[in-house]
Give the backbone structure.
Amino acid sequence: MSMNLKDLASTLGMSKTTVSRALNGYPEVSEATRKKVLEAARAVGYEANPMARSLAVGRTNVFGLIYPLLPADLGDPMFLEVVGGMAEALEARKMNLMIAPVSSQNELPSYEQMVRGKRVDGLIVSRTLVQDQRIAYLAKRGFPFIAHGRTRIDQPYAWFDYDNEAGIRLAVNHLLALGHQRISLVSAPLEMNFARQRLNSFLAAMSTAGLPVNTAYLIHDALDRRSGYQAIQQLLQCTPRPTAIIVDNHLSGVGAVRALLDAGITLGKDISLIVWGNVEDMLAETSLTTIAQPHPREAGAKMSEMLLALINGTAPADLQELWQPVLSPGNSTGPSPD
């Protein structure tokens, strides 16, 4: 026989309100009372009605991810690993992750609609921009969010990111140690914060090494296979051409590898290549040197936990997490041919 909230309260000799508040973690209930209620609920196998609980605490138990999906995203193992980690962490707490694919031009209105309709308890903002209207809007409304990446905003906000500057330094220093001086950087669109940070770090690392940067070796707006392929074709036309290339994202990195192989380039001998992110699943025929973002599934789980903490009262300034990328050597880098 199942027990409802009224029966549980009667058994404990407490009011329904007190028992409900204890089960739902309200701060005005003493720890002793909460412990007594939870032990009694476990003993009789009582489970709160999730719909009633949501109404009682004014929550949906759903987090949202509004995402302007690119054609490559659904086949992108890194994206799916992060999202899988988010979902698993929430499922363990009997919550759900809702992904809302949108066109890029309808992204901000979708945020406004989601917030006004109170459809989710919090939002995860991906692919952050240097100047990000989505984050500015959510901060102004006081709506809980965590940024997957950083942005420029005057007030503290919760974010999770990998250290873009450190990762590019690892790549440049690896190539410098191999004797390379003519180094190119292929970037995602520079309105994206990670691309801007990686470019700035590249320029700083080259300057520290006392090496000039040929502007023809800097190519922006590469965020898929086609643009990565075209970027390499453009670099191969340079005189002299670069001896080493860094691609700042794995989506265009796949196209970059294909373009070099199609041009008859021997990776690690004719030209060295480093790609940010994991492309091994897509390119089994070559072993690439990469800047890896370790533990993507754990990163997704961490973001879910941080957003839960934010909703439960942790200050945004205390929810800022920077993980370190690592250089993973492969056969695509070798001594400079010069």
